[in-house]
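User: Predict the complex.
Assistant: Input components as received:
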Amino acid sequence: MTELVEPRAMGRALVRRDGVQKVRGTATYAVDTPVDLPAYCHPVQATIARGRVTAMDTTDAEAVDGVLAVLTPFDAERLASTEDAEYAVLQSDEVAFRGQLIGVVIAETSEVAREAADRVRVSYAGQPHDTELSADRDDLYAPGQVNAGHETDTAEGDVAAAMAAAAVTVEQTYETAMYHNNPLEPHATTALWDAAGDGFLTLWDSTQGVHPDRAAVCQVFGLAEGQVQVICPYVGGGFGSKGTPHANVMLTAMAARALPGRAVRLALTRQQMFFLAGYRTPTIQQVQLAADRDGRLSAIAIDVVEQTSKIKEFAEQTGVPARMMYASPSRRTTHRLAALDVPVPSWMRAPGECPGMFGPEVAMDELAEALAIDPIELRIRNEPEVDPETGKPWSSRHLVECLREGAERFGWAGRGPRGHRDGDWLVGTGVAASVYPTLRQATSTATIRFAGGRYVVEIGAADLGTGSWTILPQIAADALGVDVADVDARIGDTRHPVASVAGGSSGTNTWGSAIVQAAREFRGTFGTDPHDGAEASGDVDQAAQDEDHAAYAFGAQFVEARVHADTGEVRVPRLLGVFAVGRVINPRTARSQFIGGMTMGLSMALHENSVFDTRIGQVANHDLAEYHVVSNADVDAVEAYWLDEHDPYVNAMGSKGIGEIGIVGTAAAVSNAVHHATGVRVRSLPITLDKLLPALP
Amino acid sequence: MKPFAFARPADVAEAVRTVAADPAAVFLAGGTNLVDHLKLGVATPDVVVDVRRLTSREIADTADGGLRMGAAVTNSELAADRRVRERYPVLAQALLAGASGQLRNAATTGGNPLQRTRCVYFSDVTTPCNKREPGSGCSAIGGYTRYHAVLGVPPTPPGPTAPDTCIATHPSDMAVALAALDAQVQVLGPHGERTIPFVELHRLPDGDPSRDTVLEHGDLITAIDLPALPLAVNSQYRKVRDRASYAFALVSVAAALEVADGVVRDVRIALGGVAHKPWRATAAEEALRGAPATEESYRAAAAAELAGAVPQPGIDDGNAFKIPLVGRTLIAVLRDLTPSEA
Amino acid sequence: MDAEISLRVDGEAHRLTVDTRTTLLDALRERLGNTSPKKGCDHGQCGACTVLLDGERALTCLALAVAYDGAEVVTADGLAADGELHPVQQAFLDRDAFQCGYCTPGQVCSAVGVLDEVRRGWPSHASPDLTGDPELSHDEVAERMSGNICRCAAYVNIVPAVQQAGGQAS
């Protein structure tokens, strides 16, 4: 048990502290940073998917008035480390995927940089490329581990025997599409290299973690941490794509070193982001469920096939949630990868859980249908008493309560096996479960200083719209026992104490634990009447860490879907989620995270799809006109509720992460609702009208 | 983006002279399509000639009871005009189904019909495209064909490397309504003024997919006329798309219907998202005139129009779904337009 | 090629030299240092660059600056020029109608334009009756605001914020 902080500021729906700047547009994102006389970069990208650059003629580019420098693989500086092939920009003539960075123009204006980049003439020796993901490939391989350090495969019991013996089985293949994070702020950096002494690099970079960002840059360029400062007070969204730096950051730093003393800016275009800023791999999920007549599972299996790039492995942990979600004596999860000539996949909101709760949660609906059991009841009947994966007790698990409260609020009672027709619309409802692990990162330090009658909390944390600017003072205020109005936060700068990445919904858990530790240290040292300048620090690794329980957040999502009887157009007038996430620090910002995640889940269900053209080896629809994210008109009612859950094990705030669970399960709930409305089981996302049309009246 | 000179002539005549004199000159109106294409390298003019403030921004009643819409009237203004809303609802609806509020505030009556295809390969200068670069081949054949044509394409497409293959669609919603409404285009060209029936403005690829319209270099649309068309009071635009708003049409239907005594007296139909040009559905219209205003007639009309439709294979099963989709949408629109007593 | 133009931005007159290729967005951001309008897509596909241009909401990324010589521009920052938030901005704060904030200046300017367009009786795709006067219903606001993409997906807070600012409590 952790000593819980008494909530006074925590739990209050305080208005965002950065709100005024954001509604005025005066919050300075990475390319907004005011600097003297910035130069502008425009990258050159490969237009073949595999091969070599044999020559780059930069004569025309350099002749453009206003061009300051053109860097190519043939003349760029050699980096200290090329260990991470994604970061090894302009280090060789090899092309590993279409759109790869092969040069950059630095110029006095953005117009000139762009024009000159267009004037760089590139010759290639192309080779046949291989970009087609398929479960039938004979070269699929098992990675050493999957993302977040999970085991690649797990097995217990005998799935095949259970499938053969079961009264009812489901055996289907489900597919999720390729998705691009597409934060609205493009990946962007302003960089300034001061050549004096050993040199000093300042990066105003759009990142989910200034310290991890700095560490990567230091490694690639062979710089000491003291030589690099990363500043990022505001992040225009990331959803994982800014959780690790991408090659554009290294290219900007390289450009800055080519132009010492001059700040350079590089913002990827929206089109370039479809090649360079990471993405979620498409997944192919073969799911097996076996159950008795009462719906008690005897087997759960998920065999996942997905892709990675040949130059850098990223293995999405899609099969992981099936390891712990429901009770079953037999269980198998596997991950197999195809290594392709494609851009490097990476984190996108709830990697693993998001795609991995699509197939299994639709399969559960199929099982409920086959058994004629209510899908909520089916889930309740398979509720595990302890974590099936580790055998540990749950720190808290209130999935059943989420399902029941959601059913009550949604009006689930009396739902029949088929939906109904309302005028031109076929109407149905669906449900799915959500889950996300409660994670804490190993490194983070907070400092609290008393100055001028105010408490100042410093930590290199990030606020990507998640509310850190607002909620970290709430945690500090309660840990210090003072009014939140007397607490200031300083985040988003490597000059502040080290902080972990804002990822894995771990920010509040990690940084908050460090802040509570610092506050306790502060009070222990200085008491309640500190002198001006009193300062204390706390590390997350000093905070109590429970190892004896399995800690997860849970949720249940309910969807009403309407399908137009003539055209098959799908509309979702209502999304409702109930979540069990421990203590909610700020209901206002938390609600925004839940509805934002759920709406992004709706977007995944109905719209998002990076259509990969394997003939040329790129995403065909690489802009926001053709890659649809949900628009305002696609959204009607989105309701998020949470249980009054107290988890005494997770941390001193009693809080679990909330940034990602909202997107988990949503797409399955939509697919289940569309099935209820139409009888069509869409197992391959997105749910577009062409998949429904053949079955319409 | 290539550098260009910017010219702001004093009047339309000078504008036409300026563009006509230079093969690398283009007109700029609202800019919503041209500026996009300048950045993409799809358009590479030497001179950009601004006509936004030169043509009329008036919507005037015409002697025959129709409307003359000045080329500079914005899509927002046109959709908000009371006369358009009451007499040509199909046009107001088509305009409002297009783009976004901000884009409609910039896009103009003269410019909207001249917007170019949304084919993703046309927009990407790193891929072959016969429309952008004649003779380079068509990347869309066998590729991402969801937004591509099913009408007006040869039954057996000549293959991706054929120099004149193009399966792009015209993306304008407004143009589909104008095609249905028998609009007339007023053009000022190097050789004077002329009038082009709107249905003849756009063309099929026909050997030269680089040309979207019959306009010659230097031709400027100065106005578009709507004839008096009483049946247009009972008209509708139905757009089917992948997102509820701010998305181009998969298919769309513009129709006006006059029914008396249970019989179709007159009808106008145009289809969008299905061809290289706004598709006036003459076969469907012919099948309907004089036919009973029934679901059966509507089905037969849709079938008649779509008899020559050719699905395009491609990624994610291609676009075969568009044929039943546009047929079902047409039937639904006609059903909606049928007076309940019929 | 360069051109000299005049712009009035957030009440202040400017004379500046731009490349003929410079968009209004880049003129504001890179020449005048006004970074309130944001670049999200640079192709008219997201709405983050929306300002009020001669009184109407407009995408600055698709406007060549040279074509708008003499124009009056109001950015989200200019809406609060006297230090007091515009009612739309206050409503966005009250309703937590944003997360990361990157699309927000564009949403705010767009919302100001929407309220004006509704006052003028302009219909929308969501209007149940083309010839009637539009109301600030959920569907009307959502449709009219659909040219502003919010990747954080604050849509269900944006709609009531716009309704609140329009004097229609929800």
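The domain at 5-50 of chain B is CATH 3.30.43.10 (Uridine Diphospho-n-acetylenolpyruvylglucosamine Reductase; domain 2).
Let me know if you want any component modeled separately.
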